[in-house]
Amino acid sequence: MTRFGDDHPEFRVDLPVPQDGAATDRDGTSSETPRSVSFRRVPVTSPEARQGDPTALHMNHAKHLKPGLVTPLGRRDLTCETCHKLDAEGPSGLAPARFDTVCEECHGLTFDDRYPDEHAPHEGGQKLRDAIEGIYRDKEMTRPRTLGQRRRDSLINPKSRDEDLQRSAEAIAAEDRLYKQCIRCHTIDLDVDPPVVDTALAPERWLPHARFDHGAHRIEGLECEDCHAAARTSERASDLLLPGIASCTPCHGGISGSDEVEAAPSFPVVPASNRCVSCHSYHSGALVPAGYLARTDEPRPPPPAVPSAAAPSSGAPR
Fold this sequence. Notes:
Number of strands: 8
Strand order of the largest sheet: 1-4
Distance between the termini: 44 Å
Largest sheet: 2 strands, antiparallel
Structural class: alpha+beta
Shape: elongated
Low-confidence stretches: 21-35, 255-263, 284-318
Number of helices: 11
Helix content: 25-40%
């Protein structure tokens, strides 16, 4: 390879393929998740990749970017930055878009009109049921009730007036209300008890063998949609919105690569480095383990320590 603009192949992604069984990361470690993941490597611009995002969500970018979107906070004009916030410590310079930091502001998990300030945890299955029962247990101990209220509450479960069964009945009714909200975004198996929510395999980093910093690309005149052009019309979470190499060559292509651009881009062209080491590190697999492509709550391992050239080795004369 001599020039990025002339000789670099199209970007390729390790496309996760959900399968049944226990999960196995690409580094060979196993984890307890409802689905396992195998990988196949394909060009990012291929039709297979364009519909290959495995995130098990019903996510409609077009709807969220619609002007005057009706939200619990009133009508809002959302932008890319509303949900995708810069974070120097995050993968590719962005903070992961998680429910508690992004979605909950508009999609709060309230479950009982009597307790509008109580929110269920973003969990499923038995964890959700236990958490809701705990909330009702706490409320039962603190809320004042008249005799008539106690009688009406006891009739929630007509077969028994046992307090524990009552709380369980309240929790199950609250679950039903919650899952009606959850199913708007998640795929849920409602035929089992408790229901099972399909795991959202949202990759935090699609190109694990390259470096990319969104913060470094926030220059005047350059908008998110200049590179992620399909975001405004995307209606499915399966749409992979990564740009291909054609979005990079106008700035990073070098003299030859820039001359070969067929049409002038709509964004400002800023001459930038086209050296391999601008995006790649030698032996990068040691710095960015491919097994960390899939989202995980575990912290990413730090890069291996590099001995200082000035530090004497053990046993060396001082």
